[in-house]
């Protein structure tokens, strides 16, 4: 009897705690409904219309989606997104892993280094982009100022074959510090005794990194891969600020194309279909991640 | 005089582009959609209201000098002259005012005096019922007598007037006069003379034309307008814009082929890749130093030219010569940098119209803005007598010659004023592919023609003023 009373008491206490939890969550949920779910539903509706962005919208069924399948500009944009993803899953990831691993061994000025690498991430993209546009200017940039062969007179953002990697370089400069801090925090949770034991067994730096560090930060690494993949498919700001998708569409991504369809081509309905298609990509990536976790993978 | 600032140059991304972040723009805009558009039919006003009440106005400026001038001689002067009207102004970023206004109008909000990028976007607002017809105000204020006819007519949709142009402008050929004198060149009067100067300049390490689009992608469109009008010719332009001639016509193909050829010779900005990287201020500075010989740009550039040619070097301008036999000389393409309309939700529409009329009711005041701050004037019938003493004679000469030339009924058509929105966006974006050689001129024009036909069928093309017969 006493047990039953205690259980009832515990159950009531739990319910009260849950109610309190929901109470704390409520403001956030309201905001989410207002600024995310509501517009998302509206975007879903408009993706089936010919809405120009102003005035009435007429229902056109799946026309926007069938048009997407045949649109070479959208295909080209997605291809650039894939290239962007490939660049970002390799270059900044490798830089951040190496940087974090080396930094994890530094004991002096660790905070200073961490801040130094992280600072570009908190600089507004407009500012970072302007800095690099000036630095890489073919006439007045560092290449010309220092007379560096290969850099002098090179139009990094004006040459269609260089523009995409050049913009990606600027974004990497801004972004990789974020990954570094993320990986560094994760590495610091690895038991130091594992490294000491490895050293006793004669392991070098590479083996420590490969056999202890990488497995130790695997969940963070996978999470970073998921984030980078999703963000790469939605990338917009640096591309739009620096090249607006040019020259000649060389840096056009799905998101910049979407934007132009809304505000230049007055095809907001079609742009909504593009936006939802991109959301599907993000959803698929997240679904893989979720399923892997459900299956018990240590990610 | 607020007009001075809404030009194609005005949308430069000098302050940095707006950020969309990682969310879909469609969602953002869609969020404002539910309460927007008022029924889909253009709104009208029952009667001209008395000019009193509160008026809100979103504006944009390009430089501090013009901002100070506008505040004092436009906003403050209007408020002093109209004590019954309270004018509330709000400056918006140069590159976002169009988007912000569109989103606000769709949500049933926005300023009382609506600024749009040109007659075609204004027509879209009219169709959505977001702005009112201005015919009764036009009659009340006598706009038909004050405003250049072509500019007034461009704002009509289905016979009703919905927008008034904020400025008028045209493409002209600026030159470094000091450099020209030094090299023994004179203002080119024919295509052969332009080509001879360009070839000579290249041989001496001087880039013929200061040109670049790194800050404003639409800068490439300026050259399409120039080559269409000065190579294909104004008659062909009029016929194409009214649907009587296809954009695939050999005349237009010849224009684009010629333009691409000049680009590939490195005449514009020093090469195609360089063109995509060139920014405006270094171009003007380089031109003043003699690195570039000429600059084919719109008359909004008078302000920049006078700012950079402030030393010993002098500049001057002339119309771009005819680029093909049969195309008239001394011809200007009609251009308007933006338009004003009255919001259908304005509480005091009459007061908003009174503010718009303020921009047209005193030619001398408007001309003073040209003289004092290189403001672009509203499209009034200006004469030399309207300009105060001290006006830059080069600037005054343009407006007087433009008025006389267009008054004779011979003029070209700027694409940013007379092309419908989608065709204009295509024309501006895809030309880059022609310049790098990944799109053939014929294919470029086929795409333009296809898009234009669909917009023409939807009546998205603004009224096209006819040439004198």
UniProtKB/TrEMBL annotation, chain A:
What top-level branch of life does the organism fall under? Bacteria
User: What are the UniProt keywords, alphabetically?
Assistant: Cell membrane, Membrane, Transmembrane, Transmembrane helix, Transport
Tell me what topology the record assigns in the membrane: Multi-pass membrane protein
State which residue ranges cross the membrane.
20-46, 82-104, 111-132, 162-185, 220-241, 268-292
Q: Which Pfam family, giving just one, matches this sequence?
A: BPD_transp_1
Q: Which InterPro entries match?
A: ABC_transporter_permease (IPR051393), MetI-like (IPR000515), MetI-like_sf (IPR035906)
Q: Which PROSITE patterns match?
A: ABC_TM1
UniProt subcellular location = Cell membrane
User: What family does the database annotate?
Assistant: Belongs to the binding-protein-dependent transport system permease family.
Classification via PANTHER family: ABC TRANSPORTER PERMEASE PROTEIN, INNER MEMBRANE ABC TRANSPORTER PERMEASE PROTEIN YCJO
Output this protein's name: Sugar ABC transporter permease
TrEMBL record, chain B:
Sorted keywords for this record are: Signal
**Which InterPro entries does this chain map to?**
Bact_solute-bd_prot1 (IPR050490), SBP (IPR006059)
Signal sequence coordinates: 1-30
Pfam family name, one: SBP_bac_1
Instruction: Tell me which domain of life the UniProt entry assigns to the organism this sequence originates from.
Output: Bacteria
Q: What is this protein's name?
A: Extracellular solute-binding protein
Q: What is the lineage of its organism?
A: Bacteria, Bacillati, Actinomycetota, Thermoleophilia, Solirubrobacterales
């Amino acid at each position: 009897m006493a047990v039953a009373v205690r259980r009832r008491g515990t159950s009531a206490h739990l319910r009260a705690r849950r109610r309190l939890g929901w109470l704390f969550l409520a403001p956030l949920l309201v905001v989410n409904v207002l600024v995310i779910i509501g517009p998302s539903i509206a975007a879903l509706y408009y993706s089936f219309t010919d809405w120009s962005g102003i005035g009435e919208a007429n229902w056109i069924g799946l026309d926007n989606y069938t048009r997407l399948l045949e649109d070479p500009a959208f295909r080209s944009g997605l291809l650039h997104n894939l290239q962007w993803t490939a660049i970002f899953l390799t270059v900044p990831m490798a830089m951040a892993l190496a940087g974090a691993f080396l930094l994890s061994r530094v004991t002096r000025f660790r905070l200073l280094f961490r801040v130094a690498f992280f600072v570009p991430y908190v600089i507004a993209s407009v500012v970072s982009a302007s800095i690099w546009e000036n630095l890489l200017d073919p006439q007045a940039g560092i290449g010309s100022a220092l007379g560096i062969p290969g850099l002098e007179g090179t139009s990094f953002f004006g040459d269609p074959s260089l523009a995409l990697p050049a913009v990606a370089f600027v974004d990497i400069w801004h972004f990789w510090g974020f990954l570094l801090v993320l990986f560094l925090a994760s590495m610091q949770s690895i038991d130091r005794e594992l490294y000491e034991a490895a050293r006793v067994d004669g392991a070098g730096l590479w083996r420590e990194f490969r056999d202890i560090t990488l497995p130790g930060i695997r969940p963070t690494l996978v999470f970073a891969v998921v984030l980078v993949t999703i963000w790469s498919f939605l990338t917009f700001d640096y591309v739009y600020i620096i090249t607006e998708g040019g020259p000649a569409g060389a840096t056009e991504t799905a998101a910049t194309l979407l934007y132009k369809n809304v505000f230049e081509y007055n095809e907001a309905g079609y742009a909504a279909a593009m936006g939802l298609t991109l959301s599907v990509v993000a959803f698929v990536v997240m679904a893989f991640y979720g399923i892997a976790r459900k299956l018990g993978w240590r990610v | 005089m607020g007009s001075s600032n809404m030009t194609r140059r005005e949308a430069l991304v000098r302050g940095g582009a707006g950020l969309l972040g990682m969310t879909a723009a469609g969602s953002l805009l869609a969020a404002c959609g539910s309460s927007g558009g008022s029924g889909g039919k253009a709104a009208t006003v029952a009667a001209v209201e008395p000019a009193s009440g509160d008026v809100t106005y979103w504006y944009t400026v390009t430089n501090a000098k013009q901002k100070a001038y506008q505040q004092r001689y436009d906003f403050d002067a209007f408020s002093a002259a109209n004590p019954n009207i309270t004018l509330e102004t709000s400056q918006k970023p140069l590159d976002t005012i169009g988007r912000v206004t569109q989103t606000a109008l769709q949500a049933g909000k926005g300023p009382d005096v609506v600024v749009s990028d040109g007659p075609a976007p204004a027509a879209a607002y009219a169709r959505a019922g977001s702005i009112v017809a201005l015919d009764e105000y036009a009659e009340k204020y006598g706009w038909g007598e004050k405003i250049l006819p072509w500019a007034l007519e461009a704002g009509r949709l289905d016979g009703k007037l919905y927008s008034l142009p904020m400025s008028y402008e045209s493409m002209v050929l600026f030159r470094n006069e000091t450099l020209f004198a030094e090299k023994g060149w004179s203002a080119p009067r024919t295509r052969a003379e332009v080509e001879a100067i360009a070839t000579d300049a290249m041989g001496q390490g001087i880039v013929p034309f200061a040109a670049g689009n790194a800050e404003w992608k639409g800068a490439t469109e300026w050259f399409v307008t120039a080559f269409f009008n000065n190579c294909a010719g104004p008659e062909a332009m009029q016929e194409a814009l009214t649907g009587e001639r296809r954009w695939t016509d050999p005349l237009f193909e010849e224009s684009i082929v010629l333009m691409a050829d000049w680009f590939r010779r490195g005449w514009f900005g020093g090469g195609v890749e360089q063109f995509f990287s060139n920014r405006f201020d270094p171009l003007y500075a380089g031109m003043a130093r003699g690195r570039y010989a000429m600059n084919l740009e719109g008359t909004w550039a008078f302000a920049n030219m006078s700012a950079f040619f402030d030393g010993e070097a002098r500049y001057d301008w002339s119309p771009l010569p005819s680029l093909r036999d049969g195309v008239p000389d001394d011809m200007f393409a009609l251009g308007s940098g933006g338009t004003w309309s009255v919001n259908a939700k304005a509480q005091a529409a009459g007061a908003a119209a009174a503010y718009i009329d303020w921009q047209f009711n005193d030619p001398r005041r408007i001309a003073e803005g040209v003289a004092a701050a290189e403001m672009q004037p509203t499209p009034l019938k200006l004469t030399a007598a309207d300009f105060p003493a001290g006006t830059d004679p080069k600037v005054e000469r343009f407006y007087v010659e433009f008025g006389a030339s267009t008054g004779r009924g011979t003029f070209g058509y700027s694409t940013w004023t007379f092309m419908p929105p989608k065709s204009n966006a295509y024309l501006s974006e895809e030309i880059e592919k022609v310049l790098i050689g990944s799109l053939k001129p014929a294919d470029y024009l086929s795409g333009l023609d296809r898009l234009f036909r669909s917009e023409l069928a939807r009546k998205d093309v603004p009224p096209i003023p006819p040439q004198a017969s």
